[in-house]
User: What shape does this take?
Amino acid sequence: MHQHLPDDRHLSLACFGSFARGEAGADSDTDLLLVVPDGTADDTTDRIVGDLEVHGRRWTGNEVQVRTGHRLG
Assistant: This one.
């Protein structure tokens, strides 16, 4: 993910939903919340989301759904 951010800006990533609660089944998707710094270009955010979805599916074998938000300030 860091290769997509050109400077020291930080992002946050959190897992929520059934995996976070320890209730996931074999077919459960993985829900992630990605928070990027305010002002991050949409195409940059899209590339990070795409990477998370692809690599997350490889790691878990399950679909990964990423929600996004922006950190203000």
About this structure: The two ends are 21 Å apart (CA to CA). The mean pLDDT is 88. The first strand starts at residue 12 and ends at 16. The chain has two helices and three strands.
